[in-house]
Amino acid sequence: MERTLILLKPDAVQRRLAGRIISRFEDKGLNFVAMKLLRVTPELAKKHYAEHVAKGWYPTLEQFITGGPIIAAIVEGLEAIQVVRDMLGATSGLKAAPGTIRGDYSSSRQMNLVHASDGPEAAKREIELYFKKEEIIEFAPTITPWLRAGDE
Ligand code: CDP
Ligand code: MG
Predict the structure, then answer these.
(1) Tell me: the pLDDT tens digits for 92-122?
(2) Is 63 in the pocket of ligand 1 (CB under 6 A)?
(3) What is the CATH number of domain 2-133?
(4) What does pTM read for this prediction?
(5) Surrounding residues of ion ligand 2, Cβ less than 5 A
(6) pLDDT in tens, 17-47
(7) How much distance in Å is there from the Cα of 4 to the middle of ligand 2?
(8) E strands, the chain, where?
(9) CA–CA separation, 113 vs 63, rounded Å?
(10) What is the distance in A from the centroid of ligand 1 to the CA of 152?
């Protein structure tokens, strides 16, 4: 079982797409174990996007990600990190395949609606960046036996 961090970026919240995007993860069988609305500060943005801070396009990314509230969440599931990345599609909404979240709803390289951790180390680091331990609610959905076989 894996956990990964997802952020519904300010464009998702402003465009009223949050509910539809959350539904797609629920429909897939992923389990939300933490969720909150927050405003990303420039300090948090620099920590989150540390690998991109030196890039020429970082200032506009920071302006975008701090420009309105976001919804941060942790989802749990088998191979959740890769499954969620695949559901997002390629970084640019212009390149993302139809059927993916970015492919269906985004026409932008920057305003691509959702962030998701790209590997186990990133997932651990990003979950700790956005959530305290006590904000994570562990539970077993009663529907679990109808989502996958017991030995999966
Ligand atoms: O989010 P993902 O891991 O797919 O892409 P990234 O290459 O790690 O870039 C992080 C975020 O920066 C993207 O999701 C875009 O919102 C933004 N970005 C941008 O504004 N301009 C670019 N040329 C590339 C990415
Ligand atoms: Mg990335």
Answers:
(1) 999 999 999 999 999 999 999 999 999 999 9
(2) no
(3) 3.30.70.141
(4) 0.97
(5) 118
(6) 999 999 999 999 999 999 999 999 999 999 9
(7) 13
(8) 2-8, 31-38, 70-77, 114-116
(9) 15
(10) 33
